Amino acid sequence: MAALSRLAMTVERAIANGMAEATKGEYRTGHDPRTLRDALGCFATGVTVVTCLNDKGDPAGLTVNSFTSVSLDPPLLLVCLHKKAASAGALVAASHFAVNVLQTGQQPASIRFSTRDEDRFGTTPWECGEAGPPILRDSMGVFECERHAVHDGGDHHILIGKVVKASFDAGLDPLLFFRGSYRRLHFD
């Protein structure tokens, strides 16, 4: 009977390990970029909409989840913008931009700003920030920045901004993105 139990436990472990192996992936240089994207998607991120005024004074912006602080002294942050994104040119050329950190109720805005919709601001409530860039109303946090530097990052621009004003509402929950889907915080 003990041998049967050991056998059953061994079979259960093998099945469990096989299931675990089926969910694991690996990327190596030269492999399919989709695999690398899937691996990067294992890092949960917040969702932002980065905005500016273009050279004609019209609002421009796009959804970005590659956002991080760089330095507290001086106060610097960075966002990564795909070079082929419709608003990328306006954002790297603008003297000022804003990073709007989205909250759970702003998922429709995130989706709208991730498409090539020409009128992204038409149905999104916004107002001009102190230095001009559009601020999306009801955002969880807003960082108003002056352009500090732009660097090449392969197929992305790395836009570094000096924070001139930051505002936030600590009572809101963040909109998150994880493994290709929007998520919400779950507290135990």
Structure summary:
The chain is an alpha+beta fold and 188 residues long. It has helices at residues 2-23, 33-40, 88-93, 107-113; strands at residues 45-46, 48-53, 59-64, 67-72, 75-82, 96-101, 126-128, 134-136, 141-153, 156-168, 176-178, 181-183.
- CATH class, anyone? Mainly Beta
Apparent shape: globular
Radius of gyration, in Å, reads 21 Å
**Which percent bin holds the helix content?**
10-25%
SSE string: HHEEEEEHEHEEEEEE
CATH topology title: Pnp Oxidase, Chain A
**CATH superfamily, called what?**
Electron Transport, Fmn-binding Protein, Chain A
Q: Could you say which structural class the secondary elements and strand pairing correspond to?
A: alpha+beta
Strand content: 35-45%
State mean pLDDT (0 to 100 scale): 88
> Count of helical segments?
4
Low-confidence stretches: none
Describe the strand arrangement of the main beta sheet, using strand numbers: 3-2-6-9-10-5-4
CATH architecture: Roll
Number of domains: 1
What is the straight-line distance between the termini?
A: 41 Å
Major β-sheet annotation: 7 strands, antiparallel
Number-wise, the strands total 12
Write the layout of secondary structure elements.
Layout: H1 2-23, H2 33-40, E1 45-46, E2 48-53, E3 59-64, E4 67-72, E5 75-82, H3 88-93, E6 96-101, H4 107-113, E7 126-128, E8 134-136, E9 141-153, E10 156-168, E11 176-178, E12 181-183
Antiparallel strand pairs: 1-11, 2-3, 2-6, 4-5, 5-10, 6-9, 7-8, 9-10, 11-12
